[in-house]
Amino acid sequence: MEEIESVDSFLLAKNYVLKHDARYFTTLGDYWDYGNSPVRYSGSRISFAILPGVFYTHFDENNISYFPDENFSRQYSVYAFLVNAGIEYTKEKPINLYWQNSIGVYGFVGTVEGKINYLSENDKQTLRVPNIQAGFTHTIGFYPNTRTDASFGYEVRYIKLFDKYNVDKKIAGLDGMGVNTAAHIAVNYYISPKFRLNLSGDLNYIWENSKSSSVLTFESIQQSSLFISNISNFRIARYGFKVNSISSSFQLALIYSIF
Predict the structure, then answer these.
(1) What is the pLDDT of residues 125-134, one digit of tens each?
(2) What are the CA-CA distances from residue 81 to residues 116, 129, 226 (Å)?
(3) Domain limits of the chain?
(4) CB atoms within 10 A of CB 35
């Protein structure tokens, strides 16, 4: 009560209030309970980021057969250091009380440096995968009242891997290029300040042209280097493939937020 009285006194002092009635105080209380979600911004932001990571996996294959009458086993481990560094630019503008426009652009360069230890063959290789990444996002937000918000957006992400494969120097590399375009929609209705009904859906198109058996990940910039986990054997990772895929998903959920 004391907090709402303070807000009311401020609005009166600034001549923002025209009528003191039940509707005004009900709306004021509703804004006080729900006005912190979602958060809307106005202005531009430039961010510089360095994203380090560590990757390790141990793989043990038994009874492998790539050709008729062939049967063998393989055991190897991979450990690597990952780092991406770049710049992100975001511009957000409230069009009016109900609509919000947000765009974002980012560009990153990075590398994966590590070792592949073939335990079953007592052999080692150096892993080296430089890469660049870029992306663009655009989101339109709609806020009809204090308890409901909706957003529609689309994004384009690009990843390029530069091959450093060298047989003589025992360097294992990956070569690939991929583009992900996606459109998404989300609607939230707040049953209480921490409990909401969420409806969401997305449509994705992925194009990939790879000279290595690498699968690119587009979930986020932090996860973009996890393509390493999709390699079953770096020594046969020279067989390329192309990807053209469309996928969609739909979700209806009740979400409770602790904070």
Answers:
(1) 888 888 888 8
(2) 12, 11, 11
(3) 1-34, 40-256
(4) 12
